[in-house]
């Protein structure tokens, strides 16, 4: 079955043009722990195909440097430089999982003062 979203939308992983470019000119150079795949052409063009949803905050720092031509070598699999580093989380802004203070959820604004009464 043909997925028509592929032809018309970019937010569903890749477009038809990206698929063709990947098939004809792309060489798989690596994959990160989130499942994103990174490609490079002979002309040194670099791009990625997201594993699930298209979210730029899913790209690890090492691959971000590579895809923006800051470094030339592809990142290694184990790239944690320090033991205290946490795993990267995606940006949840605009989703149901985003942070909202309790006052907004309860539709209740608590005053930090009392009004002056006569």
Structural class per helix/strand content? alpha+beta
Taken from the alpha-carbon principal axes, the silhouette is: elongated
Question: What strand order characterises the main sheet?
Answer: 1-2-3
The total of beta strands comes to: 3
Q: Let me know the largest β-sheet.
A: 3 strands, antiparallel
- How many H/I helical runs? 4
> SSE order, as H and E?
HHEEEHH
- Indicate the radius of gyration in whole angstroms: 22 Å
Strand content: 5-15%
What does the average pLDDT come to?
A: 78
Q: What is the CA-CA span between the terminal residues?
A: 74 Å
- Share of helical residues: 10-25%
Low-confidence stretches: none
What attributes does this structure have?
single chain; 118 residues; alpha+beta; three-stranded antiparallel β-sheet; elongated
Structure description:
- The protein has 118 residues and is α+β, with helices and mostly antiparallel strands.
- It has a domain at 5-85.
- 21% of the residues lie in helices and 11% in strands.
- The chain contains four helices and three strands; from the N terminus they run ααβββαα.
- The protein has helices at residues 5-8, 16-25, 61-67, 102-105; strands at 27-31, 37-40, 46-49.
- It has a three-stranded antiparallel beta sheet, covered by helices on one side.
- Strand 1 (27-31) and strand 2 (37-40) form a beta hairpin.
- The chain starts with a helix and ends in a 13-residue tail after the last helix.
- The model has no long low-confidence stretch (mean pLDDT 78).
């Amino acid at each position: 079955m043909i997925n028509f979203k592929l032809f018309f939308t970019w937010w569903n992983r890749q477009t038809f043009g990206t698929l063709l470019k990947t098939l004809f000119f792309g060489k798989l150079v690596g994959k990160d722990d989130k499942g994103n795949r990174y490609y490079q052409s002979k002309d040194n063009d670099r791009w990625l195909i997201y594993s699930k949803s298209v979210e730029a905050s899913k790209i690890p720092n090492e691959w971000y440097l590579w895809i923006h031509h800051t470094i030339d070598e592809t990142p290694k699999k184990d790239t944690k430089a320090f033991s205290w580093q946490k795993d990267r989380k995606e940006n949840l802004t605009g989703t149901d999982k985003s942070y909202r203070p309790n006052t907004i959820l309860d539709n209740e604004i608590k005053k930090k003062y009392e009004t002056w009464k006569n």
